[in-house]
Amino acid sequence: MAKKKPVRLKTGARYKTENRIPVNKAKWTGYGSYDVAPEYYSDQEFRCCDCDSNEIWTAQQQKYYYEGVRENIYATTMRCRKCRTYNEAVKEDQKRHMEKMVKEEPHLNEKYLKKNT
Ligand SMILES: [Zn+2]
């Protein structure tokens, strides 16, 4: 099982338990690279590229990312959950808007302009 030991984070004066979980090498594809799978995933600190906050990319999230979704091994997370959720909502909004636009009747001027060009 995961070995737990307290570790002090650089980001603040709070203590967290270090998270380590073993890599399932059968699921870790390596995406055709010659890299050898690591033994463990461990929590990583990162800075969100949108809001600049210091965040932790947990070992569990990494396992899901590389073994569940099978993301490229050279890809890492860039955004905190808050920014990711926000971006997903914006994209979802754009998608809904475009679907609505397709269903709508074109504006009268649009028909007129297309006829005369
Ligand atoms: Zn963020």
Question: Pairing-aware structural class of the strands and helices?
Answer: alpha+beta
Main sheet characteristics: 2 strands, antiparallel
Low-confidence regions: none
Bound molecules: zinc ion
- Percentage of residues in strands: 15-25%
Count of DSSP H/I helices: 3
User: Roughly how much helix do the residues carry, as a percent range?
Assistant: 25-40%
Q: How confident overall, as mean pLDDT?
A: 82
Rg, rounded, reads: 22 Å
Major sheet: arrangement of strands: 1-2
Number of domains: 1
Count the beta strands: 6
Coarse shape: elongated
Q: What is the first-to-last residue Cα distance?
A: 70 Å
Q: Name the helix and strand elements from N-terminus to C-terminus, one letter apiece.
A: EEEEEEHHH
Keywords:
117 residues, alpha+beta, two-stranded antiparallel sheet, two-stranded antiparallel ribbon, 3 helices, 35% helix, elongated, binds zinc ion
Describe this protein's structure:
The chain has helices at 59-68, 81-103, 108-115; strands at residues 5-8, 15-18, 20-22, 40-42, 44-47, 54-57. The protein is α+β, with helices and mostly antiparallel strands and 117 residues long. The chain has one domain. A two-stranded antiparallel sheet has the order 1-2. Strands 3-4 form a two-stranded antiparallel sheet. Strands 5-6 form a two-stranded antiparallel sheet. Strand 1 (5-8) and strand 2 form a beta hairpin. The longest helix has 23 residues, at 81-103. The relative contact order is 0.13. Zinc ion (ZN) binds at residues 48, 50-51, 53, 79-80, 82-83.
